[in-house]
Amino acid sequence: MRTLIIDDERLARIELRRLLQEFPKINIVGEAANADEALLLIDELDPELLFLDIQMPGKNGFELLTALKGSAPDVIFTTAFDEYAIKAFEFNALDYLLKPIDTERLREAISRIED
After folding, report:
1. pLDDT above 90 (res 72)
2. With b meaning 16 or more CB within 10 Å and e meaning fewer, what string describes 60-98?
3. How many CB atoms lie within 10 A of CB 11?
4. What residues does 1 pair with on adjacent strands?
5. How far apart, in Å, do the first and last CA atoms of the chain sit?
6. Report field, pTM of the whole predicted structure over 0.90
């Protein structure tokens, strides 16, 4: 599954990439540090799945999804803030993972995708 990681924190991207190595069906095709970079990569790489942070400089994760033209990839939000969970599911999120990401929760989220 072609996957894009979108997070303004470099260390968070590195950690998520490390955690995702356990899942052979997840193919990370790129990373973006903000919504503007992500929009270009989504258009170029056509990912099937986004791991998307919410609070980023410039556009937030919700604004990024609103800016997408056509159908959006599946989304798993990754954030340090629990107060956006309800809004995330209004955007049809597959899951909502709190940082630091728990390996078991990540496994559950990915198993839903693979089923």
Report:
1. no
2. bbbebbeeeeeeebbbbbbbeeeebeeebeeeebbbbbe
3. 8
4. none
5. 13
6. yes
